[in-house]
Amino acid sequence: MTPVLRPATADDADQVAAVFHRGWHDGHRGHVPDGLTQRRTPEAFGARVALRIAETTDTTVAEVDGVVAGFVMVSGDEVEQVYVDRAWRGTGLAEVLLDEAERQVAEAGHPTAWLAVVVGNARARSFYARRGWRDEGDLPYEVVALGERFTSPCRRYVKDLARD
Ligand SMILES: CC(C)(COP(=O)(O)OP(=O)(O)OC[C@H]1O[C@@H](n2cnc3c(N)ncnc32)[C@H](O)[C@@H]1OP(=O)(O)O)[C@@H](O)C(=O)NCCC(=O)NCCS
Asked: What are the start-end ranges of the E strands in 18-147?
């Protein structure tokens, strides 16, 4: 597996949205309010991703054999999204994507990166801990989905980035 990392384009939007939708439900279902889960539909992710890619350049995809296998979204010092599609979990692709996200945060001049991870998302928390991120405690994360406000029980993870 040799992934190609590149900025997402409008042509990637449908694939990114599909990876986002599947991964979101795998990582969040049962760990966030049910009303939020019900609003996380394929259509909602489709609209969100299309807008994000149209308005920003902060989505990076990992392409494997012409397929979007995962992506990251980085906003300032926040690693906002880290998603690997089911077939590539446990393959090392997540490490490649997270390394790229950390590189982007450092390149933008931030000494420390942070992210929010849902308390019950054990797989993601284990992954971040293995990659040197530390758990800094509770972070109730406010989310608005289709006009409704929800609070997701999250933890704040941070990582100090090595600078040359
Ligand atoms: C989070 C994610 C990027 C991690 O990538 P990955 O390739 O699955 O990560 P790995 O398999 O290398 O590591 C996950 C760890 O969780 C463990 N694990 C596997 N399945 C698990 C499960 N069901 N519950 C708890 N831990 C699990 C693995 O053994 C591994 O443990 P280790 O770090 O002690 O070796 C990926 O699982 C994913 O995209 N998940 C869905 C979307 C998501 O939740 N994104 C993060 C949002 S903050």
From this structure: 59-64, 67-75, 78-84, 112-118, 134-145
Spacing, Cα 124 to ligand 1 middle (Å): 5
H/E element, 7: strand 4-7
27 CB near ligand 1 (under 6 Å): yes
What number does the ligand 1 atom closest to the CA of 130 have? Answer: 33
Q: Whose CA is nearest to atom 2 of ligand 1?
A: 124
**Does residue 94 have its Cβ closer than 6 Å to ligand 1?**
yes
- pLDDT tens digits, one per residue of 90-142: 999 999 999 999 999 999 999 999 999 999 999 999 999 999 999 999 998 89
Please state which architecture CATH assigns to domain 4-160: 3-Layer(aba) Sandwich (3.40)
Write down the pTM of the prediction.
0.96
